[in-house]
UniProtKB/TrEMBL annotation:
SUPFAM superfamilies: Quinoprotein alcohol dehydrogenase-like
UniProt keyword annotation of Cytoplasm present: no
Organism encoding this protein: OM182 bacterium MED-G28
Protein name: Pyrrolo-quinoline quinone
Gene Ontology terms for molecular function: oxidoreductase activity
Region (Disordered): 225-248
Family stated for the protein in its record: Belongs to the bacterial PQQ dehydrogenase family.
Domain Pyrrolo-quinoline quinone repeat residues, every copy: 50-329, 495-551
Length: 584
């Protein structure tokens, strides 16, 4: 049994870390109940636990728990709350055997009793003077065996003891002094830690995806997201030298399908943003703004689909890729683009979801990357067609930028129709639940600053409305994965900026810019419950069960917002707080 002492500090062998352990008898009980996590449990997690970012490697964001359901969700009430670290708040609460793990801004980690928030231990990493303004975002960790595995602001991969917060090993993967950092955290897929480097938007070059031994952190393979000269796809950058091939951040975690043994990763924009700044006009600049499918054993890219070739408008495509087995029967009158060669009622495993800011649902064959169908969920004017044969989107020539400071109306804004807040999927309805927004901007490119970025500017205000818009910004849409049909759509003035959680209780939970945390009926779109939080929510909601009681957790504070477009919706900044709800 682990002995806990009240509020004592102990210096780790790691130079950069300290941890604090505190406890009472209940805290001891919570830690005593902790059981090591197997690969089999990661593949099929117990219903009561939430062990990785979107709970499962297919990124559904779905829990089978149904104690909280359509019939009783209106009685949901606050169980407990916890004040969190100030700073960029984008966390995912993880839970194992009644212990909750909270990764927070700037690599501050806490373990608490999931029943009432009693502190069990904490870990705080020594801070560095980082050039990247987004480097403190910490979206997720992952649990495996008796480890809590994190990636850090200073580009390290670190294993902590889930029982004490002590560092068990760490490895430096990138170089924080040139802007590299982790944003989306690690996941254990196919028995390996998979982590994508981000922060490749300053003076450094391209990013990569790596696989590591979970017991030691030793690197197994590495795949560049921006190919160098001589590598496959390297020719799409033209004559740009390797040291100027920048971008390709992997902002979010990868998904995985064990049957195909493929890892799916979304890749962000090239840097600088504009082709005239990079001098790559006409080049696709792979693998930016792409979905890539990698062999889990080797990291080799098996296929890719490029949503925006040669991007100009900071319309990132690095968000989650959802893996679903479904019939593929898109209705031509319900989708924006369709592959005419799809066989009727054909059943396939697909990669779907909204991978990028334009707010388009893309659906590709998970084994080959073949384009199947795509559907717009909000107004956008960036993508106008699909090159099915060459597996890439076709962009709007009317918004091409040929000169520095040439202004174009681009929709959505750089904040996106959607940003890193996640779509949810429910196997009960075979539908995606998409939180998107109608926005536009006056966009232009700046002269290149070779050291610190700032390559574009955009004006976003009430004077730049969505064409034929009605002032309703937030959109929450349920879309059938088989047909592309919108089952229902909910619209409102406030932007819908939270991530979606779906449950076995027939519910879809999401938050908005007006601090509302709501439960929707997955079948009808009816709002069944809402709670006003202290702030809009930047965190990913999760649900779990302890002692046969289901809880619902959401971390408020920070997050994406569109309040420039809705100045009547006001709130103070900050206010990082974890809220946990249960039935009476």
């Amino acid at each position: 049994m682990i002995k806990l002492h009240s509020f004592y500090f102990r210096l780790s062998y790691c130079f950069f870390s300290t941890f604090l352990v505190t406890g009472v008898s209940q805290a001891q009980t919570a830690l005593d109940d902790f059981e090591n996590i197997s690969l089999e449990e990661l593949a099929k997690p117990p219903a009561e636990d939430w062990l990785m970012w979107r709970r499962t490697a297919n990124h559904w964001g779905y829990s089978p728990l149904n104690q909280i359901n359509k019939n009783n969700v209106s009685s949901l009430r606050l169980a407990w709350a916890w004040t969190m670290e100030p700073g960029l708040q984008e966390t995912t609460p993880l839970v194992r055997n009644g212990v909750m793990f909270l990764p927070q801004a700037c690599d501050f980690i806490e373990a608490v009793d999931a029943r009432d928030g009693t502190l069990l231990w904490e870990y705080r990493r020594e801070q560095v003077d980082h050039i990247a303004s987004l480097s403190c975002a910490n979206r997720n960790a992952t649990l495996y065996k008796d480890q809590l595995i994190i990636t850090t602001r200073d580009a390290y991969l670190v294993s902590l003891s889930a029982l004490t917060g002590e560092v068990t090993w760490e490895r430096q993967i990138g170089d924080w002094t040139i802007g590299q950092h982790y944003s989306g955290g690690p996941q254990v897929l196919d028995g390996k830690i998979i982590a994508g480097m981000s922060g490749c938007y300053y003076i450094n070059t391209g990013c990569w995806i790596t696989a590591h031994d979970p017991d030691t952190g030793e690197e197994i393979w590495r795949t560049n997201t921006v190919p160098k000269i001589g590598e496959p796809g390297g020719e799409t950058w033209g004559d740009v030298p390797n040291e100027e091939r920048r971008g390709g951040s992997a902002w979010m975690p990868a998904s995985y399908d064990s049957d195909l043994d493929l890892i799916y990763q979304g890749i962000a924009v090239p840097i600088p943003w504009g082709s005239i700044q990079r001098d790559t006009r006409g080049g696709d600049v792979l693998y930016t703004n792409s979905t890539i499918a990698m062999n889990a054993d080797t990291g080799e890219i098996e296929w890719y689909f490029q949503h925006i070739p040669g991007g100009n408008w900071d319309q990132d495509h690095p968000f989650e890729r959802i893996v679903v087995e479904t019939e593929v029967t898109p209705k031509a009158d319900q989708v924006s683009w369709i592959n005419p060669n799809i066989l009727s009622a054909e059943r396939r495993k697909v990669v779907t979801g909204i991978p990028g800011k334009p707010g388009i649902i893309w659906t590709m064959d998970a084994a080959t990357g073949e384009f199947l169908w795509a559907k717009e969920t909000n107004y956008q004017n960036v993508i106008v067609d699909v090159d099915i044969e060459n597996q890439k989107g076709i962009t709007n020539p009317e918004i091409d930028i040929t000169e520095i400071r040439q202004r174009k109306l681009v929709c959505p804004t750089t904040t996106g129709g959607i940003n890193w807040n996640s779509v949810g999927y429910s196997p009960q309805t075979n539908a995606l639940y998409a939180p998107t927004n109608n926005t536009c901007m006056d966009y232009y490119l700046n002269p290149v600053n070779p050291t610190v970025g700032g390559y574009h500017s955009s004006a976003v205000s009430l004077k730049i409305p969505v064409p034929e818009g009605d002032g309703q910004i937030g959109i929450f849409t349920a879309v059938d994965v088989a047909t592309g049909e919108a089952l229902w759509t909910y619209q409102q003035r406030a932007a819908i900026t939270g991530s979606v959680l779906t449950t076995g209780g027939g519910l879809a939970f999401v938050t908005d810019d007006a601090r509302r945390f709501r439960a929707f009926d997955v079948d009808t779109g009816e709002i069944l419950w809402e709670q006003i939080l202290n702030s809009s929510a930047g965190g990913f909601p999760t649900t779990f069960s302890v002692d046969d009681i289901q809880y619902l957790a959401i971390a408020a504070g920070g997050g994406v917002n569109h309040r420039t477009l809705t100045p009547e919706i006001r709130q103070r900044s900050g206010g990082n707080m974890l809220f946990v709800f249960r039935l009476p």
